[in-house]
Each structure stands twice: as structure tokens, then as C-alpha cells.
Amino acid sequence: MSFPAELVLKPIGIVQTAAVGDEVRDKSRLSQIIVHDEFAEALDGVSEFSHVFVLFWLHEISDEQRKTLKVHPRGRRDLPLLGIFATRSMFRPNPVGLTLVELVKVEGNVLTVRGLDAFDGTRVLDIKPFDSWDTAKTAKVPEWWTKLEKEKAQPR
Amino acid sequence: MSFPAELVLKPIGIVQTAAVGDEVRDKSRLSQIIVHDEFAEALDGVSEFSHVFVLFWLHEISDEQRKTLKVHPRGRRDLPLLGIFATRSMFRPNPVGLTLVELVKVEGNVLTVRGLDAFDGTRVLDIKPFDSWDTAKTAKVPEWWTKLEKEKAQPR
Hints:
Helix content of chain A: under 10%
Structural class of chain A: mainly beta
Order of helices and strands of chain A: EEEEEEEEEH
Strand content of chain A: 25-35%
Number of strands of chain A: 9
Distance between the termini of chain A: 53 Å
Oligomer: homodimer
Strand order of the largest sheet of chain A: 2-3-8-7-4-9
Shape of chain A: globular
Radius of gyration of chain A: 17 Å
Largest sheet of chain A: 6 strands, antiparallel, barrel
């Protein structure tokens, strides 16, 4: 068996969405994931799940941005300066995004999903079914996090 | 700005655990994540969360195993043959594991976590705080999945 010396990822598909800018954060929006033909067979059975995690390569993060260690969440100076592992910032050593989406429809190699906050052309790395073990019923979060959550819940 | 042509990951830390074999699946077990010194600062604020997602490079998956498209979940022939995107199999095009863990303690660059199903020496790629948006209250899963869930819930 040969184990890779470098940890290299290969895109398994690509995101298609009409959303631009902040519109990608709109959790009610639909996007498509076009899975590359060579991986189409690996989708067998996925339509039986209502929710899947999507892992994707965060769009247009530079090598310089990957060196970021601390950020104000969402760039907001009214929130504390934090280590990036305490945030969901896009600027991370390994710019891999993780989003739970609702799986609306699977047609051939095309997945229609709701709530994927990824830009058009984003390279998709993995699709994993949502497991009840992936959730915490009583999670404790910092105050700044709760503040952002409440703002997200506001109607636009 | 320079964007990488290849999607290359760099480990940000390593797993330490006394668990071997199937013991790593024991959700009550503690493991340590030793974050490399250069990323220690990126942990600031993480101790305020009770739960984090850990992304890690699945241990000793060969290039050949990455070409797997279909598996019986857990290698069990009594369960259907499924596309790997409908399973949490380790054999996937991009062998990145995802586990939600309880964050028990943070001391310097060492995180003590509960429920990380990763082997000793596993390379850690990312730590992301758990977001209430990462959960689905009413997720639909296939029958074979529920069957496995029930088995997991049995006391050992």
C-alpha cells in the first residue's frame, strides 16, 4: 500500500448557485452540487438522507490568508479578537468549509441542496450523511457567539 | 494574492490516545489533541465552547482505498452496498474525518476531548466551534442507518 506523503485533496464536484456576495449566507437558498462523473456512483443511497454535511474548499483564500491566526468574527471590531479555531472564519490554515445542508433532490450526479453558504464555482471535497452523533443537545457557546446567532435569526 | 493550484492541507496538530482498534469508537473515551506550537495562538477563545468539530486526516488510508466508490457500511454484508457519499466510511476520495467532540479542557496547546474516534498519531486539520446551524432537528435517515444507530446505543 502507498500512503501519500502530502495531504492533497481532489475536488469531487463543484457548486452552482445564482447567489452573489452576502446572498450565499441566506439559509433558505437552493444551490446545486454537480458531482464529477467519475464519482457519480458514490452517490448511490444518498437520497435517503434528508441532511448531509458538505465539505468544500473555501473560495479564493490565498496562501497569505491561510497564515491568519486571529480574527474579529465577521471582521467586526465590536466582537473580541479570537483565535481562528474559536471561529468559523474562512481564514484558516486549512481552508475547508463545513456546512450542514438540507438535501432537497438528487437527479443523476446533481444534488439540489438548501442552505449551502458556498460561492458559485466552489470545489466540493466530500459529502457525508448527517449522524445524530454529530449534534450536541446542550452546547455551551460564548456570549459573542449568541449575539451573532440572534442577529442571524432576524428577518432580513 | 496567490491562490494554490493544488489543494494541499497541512496538519495543525496530532491526536494522542491510548485507545487501540475498536476502542477508538468508544464515545466516552478521552483523547488529547496536541496543537503544533505555530498554531497555539489560534486556540484563543476556544475554551469557551463546550463542543467542537474536529477535522482530521483519516489514518493510513492508501491511494488505492481512496478510489473506492461503494461499500457495505462497516464492511457488513447484511447491510446494503452503498455509494461512499451515503456512508461515513473511511474509504473516500478525500479521507478527511469529521467528528463532533466534547471539549473537556484546554491547557496551553493541548486540548482534552471526549468522543474523538481517531487513532493515535492522526493528523488534525481543523477545529471548528459547533454551531446550532450545524444540526437538523428532524433528520430523515435510511433504515440501515437506524439499525446501526441502535446497535451503537447498546451497552458494551
